[in-house]
Task: inverse folding
C-alpha cells in the first residue's frame, strides 16, 4: 500500500466527517460517489486484484458493522460510508480501522458525556446495561462516529507506516 493509495480513503472519510458534522447525517449521494471513485482508483492502481481486495474489505466492513447497526449502536450512514471507504482498501486495513474506531468512539463518547456533565448518568447507564435493562430506555450520548472512523483510519496509517507514531 503506497502513499497514493492512502489519499482516496482519507478523502472519503474527511468528506464524511464534514457532512456528518454539518448535518448529523451521512448522505447517500456521498456514499455512492465515494464507492464509484474507490472502485475506479483501486482498479486503476491494482487491477482485478484490487477489485478482489476491495470486495473482501467491503464484506469485512459489513460483517463488523451490521450487528452494531442492528443493535442501534452505530448509524446506517456510518456503516455505508465505511463500506464505500473499504472498497479502496484490503480487509486487514478495514479490520484495524474498525477496531481502532470503536476504541476512539468510546474515548470520544466518554469525553463528550463528561464535558456535558453526564458522567454519573453514563456510569448508571453502564451498570443498567450490565444488569440487562433495555438500553433503548436509557439516556445516551451521541457522537458523530465518522470522526471515530477517521481517527481509526489514522491509527492504522500510523501503525502501518510510521511505527505507531502520528
Result:
Amino acid at each position: 500500500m503506497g502513499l497514493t493509495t492512502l489519499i482516496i480513503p482519507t478523502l472519503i472519510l474527511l468528506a464524511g466527517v464534514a457532512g456528518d458534522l454539518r448535518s448529523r447525517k451521512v448522505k447517500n449521494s456521498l456514499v455512492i460517489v465515494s464507492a464509484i471513485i474507490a472502485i475506479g482508483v483501486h482498479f486503476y492502481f491494482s487491477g482485478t486484484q484490487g477489485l478482489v481486495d476491495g470486495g473482501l474489505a467491503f464484506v469485512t466492513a459489513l460483517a463488523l458493522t451490521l450487528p452494531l447497526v442492528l443493535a442501534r449502536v452505530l448509524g446506517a450512514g456510518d456503516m455505508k460510508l465505511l463500506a464505500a471507504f473499504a472498497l479502496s482498501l484490503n480487509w486487514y486495513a478495514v479490520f484495524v480501522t474498525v477496531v481502532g474506531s470503536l476504541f476512539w468512539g468510546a474515548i470520544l463518547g466518554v469525553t463528550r458525556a463528561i464535558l456535558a456533565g453526564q458522567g454519573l448518568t453514563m456510569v448508571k447507564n453502564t451498570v443498567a446495561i450490565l444488569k440487562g435493562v433495555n438500553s433503548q430506555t436509557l439516556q445516551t450520548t451521541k457522537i458523530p462516529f465518522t470522526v471515530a472512523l477517521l481517527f481509526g483510519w489514522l491509527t492504522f496509517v500510523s501503525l502501518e507506516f510510521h511505527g505507531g507514531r502520528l
User: Anything to note?
Assistant: The chain has one domain: 4-161. Helices lie at 4-23, 28-70, 76-86, 91-115, 119-130, 145-161.
